[in-house]
């Protein structure tokens, strides 16, 4: 009886799965260089936001508030995107087009950061904190544009019609069926 238990135990008992890793290194949707650049984007936008937040007086507060909004948004959403892409959480969110989302977000943030930097650099109180925030803002802008450039270089533009690749980089199958004689049949 003991021999049958050992035979059946190995085939019929449910094995506990090995512990899953929560952090994926390197992330499947980011290469190592872009992963590093996204970390730099988070850091630079955070420093720009903190330096802007410490400014105590402003004559024309509109550009300051716009820069604050963009730098804070860049910090928080890039951190969220980085956490989602570097962990298994991106598999639970229900989004299947991560490259398109990443490209669209990074492009939009690069343009918004550039605009906010230009506006804030043109109209600020010329204090050291404001000028430092502008410098870190421009550095963050450069990082966002580098990220977009590397994405396009490695993967192309994901939402372009001529791009014949799926999100994972494999070619898409042809969806249009061809007639055997090359003519369309009319019924």
Would you write up a description of this structure?
- It is a single chain.
- The chain is mostly helical and 187 residues long.
- Helices cover 60% and strands 0% of the residues.
- It has a domain at 33-155.
- The protein contains 5 helices and no strands.
- The longest helix has 28 residues, at 128-155.
- It is elongated.
- The chain crosses the membrane at residues 35-52, 64-89, 101-121, 133-152.
- InterPro entries: Marvel, MARVEL-CKLF_proteins.
Short description:
Helix content is 60%, strand content 0%. The protein has 187 residues and is mostly helical.
Main beta sheet: none
Number of helices: 5
Oligomer: single chain
Strand tally is 0
Percentage of residues assigned to helices? 55-70%
> Uncertain regions: pLDDT < 50 for 5+ in a row?
none
- Residues in β-strands, percent: under 5%
Region (Disordered): 162-187
Transmembrane segments: 35-52, 64-89, 101-121, 133-152
Biased composition (Polar residues): 178-187
Keywords: Membrane, Transmembrane, Transmembrane helix
Keyphrases for this structure?
187 residues, mainly alpha
Question: Layout of helices and strands, plus pairs?
Answer:
Elements: H1 2-12, H2 32-54, H3 61-86, H4 98-122, H5 128-155
Helix pairs in contact: 2-3, 2-5, 3-4, 4-5
Keywords: Membrane, Transmembrane, Transmembrane helix
Protein name: CKLF-like MARVEL transmembrane domain-containing protein 6
Membrane topology: Multi-pass membrane protein
